[in-house]
Write a structure and sequence with these properties.
Keywords: Cytoplasm, Cytoskeleton. This protein is of the alpha+beta class. Helix 12 runs antiparallel to helix 13. The chain has 14 helices and 22 strands. The radius of gyration is 49 Å and the shape is flat.
Amino acid sequence: MEVLREKVEEEEAAEREEAAERSEKMRPAEVWKEETPMTQEMLRDLEKKLSEMEIPTPADPLTFPKDTIDISMLPQSYKTNSPKEELMLQVADNFSRQYSHLCPDRMPLFLHPLNECEVPKFVSTTIRPTLMPYPDLYNWDSCAQFVSDFLTMVPLPDPLKPKVKKEEKPPPKKYAIKPPRDLTSRFEQEQEAKRQEEIRAHEEKLRREAEERLLEATKMKPDPLHGLRVHSWVLVLSGKREVPETFFIDALSGRSYSPQDDHFLGIESLWNHKNYWVNMQDCWNYCKDLVFDLGDPVRWEYMLLGTDKPYLSLTEEDDDDLNDEDDVEALGKEDEDKSFDMPPSWVQQIEITPEEFETRCPNGKKVLHYQRAQLEKWAPYLNPNGLVCRLTTYEDLEYTKVLEIKEWYQNRGDMLELRHINKSTGLIIDYFKPGHPQALRVHTYKSMEPEMDRVMEFYEVARVDGLIKREETPNTMTEYYQGRPDFLAYRHIIFGPRVKKLPLNSTDSNPRPPVKITERFYRNPEKPADDDVAERVFLTTEERIQLRYHCRSDHITSNKREFLRRTEVDSKGNKIIMTPDMCISFEVEPMEHTKKLLYQYETMMQLKNEEKLSKHQAWESELEVLEILKLLEEEEEAHTLTISIYDTKRNEKSKEYREAMERVMHEEHLRQMEAQLDYLAPFLAQLPPGEKLMRWQAMRLKDECLSDFKQRLIDKANLIQARFEKETQELQKKQQWYQENQVALSPEDEDLYLSYCSQAMFRIRILEQRLNRHKELAPLKYLALEEKLHKDPRLAELLKVFG
């Protein structure tokens, strides 16, 4: 340390001598200056030009407002400098003076800014190497130590496209139907095409004009401070930890950038927790041509020696020369003599609590502004409705006219995940995660009032009826199904006006009457196509039922059938019999059994029952829509958020359950402690209180305790033996009674006897096992009590004499 101080003093003395020599040399120049007026005029012009130039001055040192940082809570290392740090600052000042003298046209070095307590600190001491996520990171602020995890987005390969099997064309038919003639006018078609082309050209012109206006409005103005700003980034050098190439990381956003990026105009200096390097390369081509070999003193001027700096990249010949042991030892000794120990970091270790980590940003909210868009982010559970992100898109650049809003939610009890609001059309789309009580997946609507335009999509796997989507309008309802056992695929219902006007909240008590119900079915492979219904239509007001069957593969049309429903009795009360005019059918290949009235009658009766079932299902669909709307409104008002069982801070139920379990365990422990009674208490109560035990009294207490325990063991064995003999005698008496009255017994009495014998044998077997077990454990218990008495602190000292 003393050697370094002497070197610093010698360098300062040399600088003072050089300054004196320069002042002496300036004297003849001044005389020459007076003797040459031409030179004086040139110097005045140069001085005038220089005075007109604006030289950017470095910004003021970074300071922190005292009202935002409580410096009283900071450790002493923030407020003062150790002797080693003071020496480091002197070395840094000396290096800065030499740099300013050799490079007067470059900006001053950023070496020792002021910290929170306005104390100068060397930049390398602001880094804690234990928190460095990479081995070669260089930064100027301790906050940059905590850098977000760098994620490299690797483009995934395109999915393999499945091979599409080409359909084999059927052989040409001998006879084909001629297509109808085209009777449209070519002139009208040409005029229509010309008109559409003009419309498209006009729209394209308007679009180009709008784009030009947008480009003109968003055109960036020239930046007067371009190239004058200084920003600190994190540099990750290649070579270690399988880092293939050097790249930068923005310490504030965590994004990575290549040195080839145009964001970087140049590099002034680099530093880590061991050394400081100044870039001596020309940055005319930004950072694209920079060589990041910090061991090259020509390109990077280092500040300290002997701090494990990266070695210069060597050729094979130079590498062979350095293999000489003598040279390596000599080099090591030289570095050892000139080495300087960097002071330890003065900053505290960054500690982030779970609560602070969950907020993700100051106060848990962050707002980002983009061109015609605004992005808002919140921490989970910060908003009572579970809102965590909102993206608002605007029509203009002034953020006044809203086009659409997208809101993302988390931890919602109703499983709401995303809400898309289109302000221009008023359309709202809600997206739900799996787990909704009604298996709702997407809800598209404009109003939450019933019997309005809306579309509901469901998770069909979670529904028993296989409903996929339900579309509703004020007068219609359309449902789509999949995976049903009856092969139903589609149901369209047209409602008529209500008979009596009631408030909207009583729609379940006065449903709308269905006027027309159309149902379509998938193909049932177990039925022939001629008997498999593809579509059926119930015209309730017209009392008609229309059927259309599936088309066979070798036919060009399908069978159709229509039933005309009539009242079952006429005006005189006579029952109406099925007549041929009540069924109108078209069959490609007529069959005999379909023409019979019995078959038509049975089919019509079955269709009547299915019509009633379809009406009932339509009514249930209306009720389900009302129930879903009511549930959504209740959930929107309640804002119930789900909390994980592992979140002990917010989960009150889990906390109460844990406290209840701890209370129960404590009570159980107290009961166990109470159950362990003092086995000597009954015998010690016979002695006078406060009297000290004698040896013969201790021996007597031990014998009485053992004899009492032995007697209790015998009494327990006698009790079990007595119960065993009692059960055996009762069973023998019952068996003797059965032998005497066996002939006159009824089946019920025999069942009762057998049941009694089974239960008696079970009790006898249990008593026998308990008796045998008691005989095995009684001696062991006696010996255990005897050992316990010998170890009892009240008798141990007195019983040792008799041992």
